[in-house]
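User: Reviewer 2 asked us to show a designed sequence for the structure in our supplementary figure. I'm pasting the structure tokens here. Could you produce the per-position amino acids so we can include them in the response letter?
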């Protein structure tokens, strides 16, 4: 019998965009409830028009998320802006999922860090390269870790905010039903924003979830989970959905072996 049989795992991601996680756990007979706690919307082009017109002034472009890649290229497409200036730029991404999304638009990353977070990106990129002018593609809630690293080494950069992160109020009812039923064995979060949205959506129900294992896609998400007082947080070795799935499997495998 599988050690994950009948375990009910919550994932803070749209089911259609979480196959890397769900498929692995379904193979182990776990039950997955996936709800997108946050949603995204495009920013107004007016806010970024000047930077789009100055793409040739940059030598590097940094994508801090897969969403940033998608919304950046959608801006270009929707407003019939040429991609030709991009062919002269080097491109950097924070992780493999961002790299894969970039490849879907016909470009390859020239740099990807050894670990997929802003801290490793900042250190490794600034140690290896000395760019003249960097364009960073972001969402409105992006952290300033890379900005601060560039400031320390005197790297000139500009930020382009191409999307906004919003709480997804549409899933509040099914989410609160899951919390009220108290059937979830573990909570899995894919960003600090998803944790903030989670507690905003469940209102006063927070105390009932804090004792369950909380799996976080990276250390920044774990910090946010601890701020909300989750008692038992776990982080995968690789900061991806697949890495999260393997961490959940490892946790329950070890738990069963201790009980034998």
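Assistant: Here is a per-position design you can include in the supplement:
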């Amino acid at each position: 019998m599988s050690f994950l049989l009948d375990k009910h795992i919550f994932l803070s991601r749209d089911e259609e965009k979480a196959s890397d996680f769900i498929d692995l756990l379904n193979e182990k007979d776990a039950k997955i409830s996936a709800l997108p706690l946050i949603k995204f919307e495009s920013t107004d082009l007016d806010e970024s028009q000047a930077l789009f017109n100055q793409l040739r002034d940059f030598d590097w472009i940094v994508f801090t998320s897969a969403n940033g890649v998608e919304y950046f290229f959608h801006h270009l497409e929707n407003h019939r802006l040429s991609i030709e200036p991009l062919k002269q730029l080097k491109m950097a991404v924070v992780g493999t999922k961002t790299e894969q999304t970039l490849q879907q638009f016909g470009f390859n990353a020239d740099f990807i860090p050894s670990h997929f977070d802003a801290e490793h990106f900042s250190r490794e990129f600034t140690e290896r390269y000395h760019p003249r002018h960097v364009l960073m593609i972001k969402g409105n809630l992006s952290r300033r870790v890379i900005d601060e690293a560039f400031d320390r080494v005197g790297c000139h950069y500009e930020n382009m905010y191409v999307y906004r992160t919003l709480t997804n109020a549409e899933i509040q009812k099914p989410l609160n039903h899951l919390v009220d039923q108290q059937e979830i064995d573990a909570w899995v979060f894919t960003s600090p924003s998803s944790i903030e949205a989670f507690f905003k959506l469940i209102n006063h129900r927070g105390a009932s979830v804090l004792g369950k294992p909380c799996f976080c896609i990276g250390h920044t998400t774990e910090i946010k989970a601890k701020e909300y007082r989750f008692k038992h947080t776990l982080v995968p070795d690789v900061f991806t959905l697949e890495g999260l799935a393997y961490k959940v499997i490892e946790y329950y495998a070890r738990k069963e072996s201790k009980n034998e």
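For the response letter, you might also mention the following. The chain has two domains: 8-37+169-259, 41-166. The chain has ten helices and ten strands.
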